[in-house]
Write a structure and sequence with these properties.
This protein is of the alpha/beta class. It is built from 7 helices and 10 strands.
């Protein structure tokens, strides 16, 4: 069900969760992971979405991730609709890719960082405190401890990314945002106006922390994503804030 296949020396590594063999694919999600994450972090999310016949391809946290994601979105051999999913700093990448003309049919943003400055300062910059800020799920904390990168020499330097404010303006494609109500890394009070300005349909997850796709409420969040994908496929109106 899963394969890892960096196709060229300059491509970021990817991991794919395929639809069940007896079902026709209903679309493809290209997922750009967050800071310090690897595609393996998304085993639970990828396998759950794939069970509903949507193929999921996670792109590693790598300088070539934007180019790899753009190439996958433009690959017409992949089942459509092709939906770009961005998590944490990967959500910033997703916004920029769409604005640069990447061929995404829709976008899902999870934990979009919106407060200018270096991510990581607010909780002390250590990996242990960041894990606590990312998720309350004991299983996912274990996954992050095993499958995410702490940074060179055990520091959190590679997990600190200076960010600029997200430029306002509707993205122009159907957009779903899922955001934790208790996210300490990208507080909901700061994020919600930005997400509305992007034209996103916003789902706020009660008690959710930053890694909202993999936090305690991961089942209901996955269901929210599937409902969005099904409405996209059917051509139903995707509700957006005015």
């Amino acid at each position: 069900m899963t394969v890892t296949d960096p196709t060229t020396p300059t491509a970021a590594a990817i991991r794919t969760w395929s639809e069940p063999e007896h079902l026709a694919p209903r679309g493809t999600l290209i997922l750009v992971v967050g800071r310090g994450e690897t595609p393996e972090v998304y085993q639970r999310f990828g396998s759950r979405i794939a069970a509903d016949a949507y193929r999921v391809i996670a792109v590693d946290d790598d300088p070539s991730a934007p180019a790899t994601a753009a190439a996958l979105l433009a690959d017409h051999t992949l089942p459509g609709p092709r939906v770009l999913v961005g998590v944490d700093a990967g959500a910033l990448t997703a916004v920029e890719l769409v604005r640069s003309g990447a061929a995404a049919d829709a976008v899902v943003l999870a934990g979009l960082p919106v407060v200018p400055g270096p991510l990581g300062q607010a909780w002390g910059g250590s990996w242990e405190t960041e894990i606590a800020a990312r998720t309350a799920c004991p299983n996912h904390r274990g996954v992050l401890a095993r499958s995410a990168r702490r940074g060179l020499g055990g520091s959190a330097d590679t997990l600190v990314l200076p960010i600029a404010p997200v430029t306002p303006g509707v993205l122009g494609v159907p957009t779903l945002a899922v955001h934790g109500a208790a996210d300490p890394i990208s507080p909901a009070a700061d994020a919600l106006p930005v997400l509305a300005g992007l034209g996103a349909e916003v789902t706020v997850v009660t008690d959710g922390l930053h890694d909202v796709l993999n936090d305690v409420q991961h089942r209901s969040v996955a269901a929210t994503v599937i409902l969005f994908l099904e409405r996209l496929r059917s051509g139903s109106t995707v509700v957006r804030p005015a």
